[in-house]
Amino acid sequence: MEARHVLIVLKHNGKWLLTRHSIRGIEFPGGKAEEGESIEEAAIRETIEETGATITDLVKFAEYVVMSNVTFCKAVFTGKVSMIDENPTLFETEGALWMTAEELNDCKELSFHMKDAGMVEIRKWVETYVQ
């Protein structure tokens, strides 16, 4: 199954980049690739649209299948923040939320997407392999 959805998991200056989805709660930015768009382009676009942060040096380090009414595959990326728009035009979210690991661990408003064992492993990978 080809990945057509993206999840962006990264840290910048010691803090995780998250966003607050109006319905689901706090989560990492992500979304679906548009027609004709690569998953790398989708990762960059979704991060800008949801947080105002522009990312570069993308690294795709995982894929996983989401089992739901419509099963789909999601590619997981990390990267570097090259620019932060302090007044972005946002789509579907309330913008960037920067959290330390402790704040993220203690957060009571996490999206259901953020609460499974796979997300713990994804965060560990970024902590271990990304400087």
UniProtKB/TrEMBL annotation:
It comes from the Bacteria. Pfam families: NUDIX (PF00293). InterPro entries: Nudix_hydrolase (IPR020476), NUDIX_hydrolase-like_dom_sf (IPR015797), NUDIX_hydrolase_CS (IPR020084), NUDIX_hydrolase_dom (IPR000086), Nudix_YtkD (IPR014078). Keywords: Hydrolase, Magnesium. The keyword Hydrolase applies. Residues 1-128 form the Nudix hydrolase domain. Its cofactor is Mg(2+). One of its GO terms (molecular function) is hydrolase activity. Belongs to the Nudix hydrolase family. This is NUDIX domain-containing protein. It comes from Sporosarcina thermotolerans.
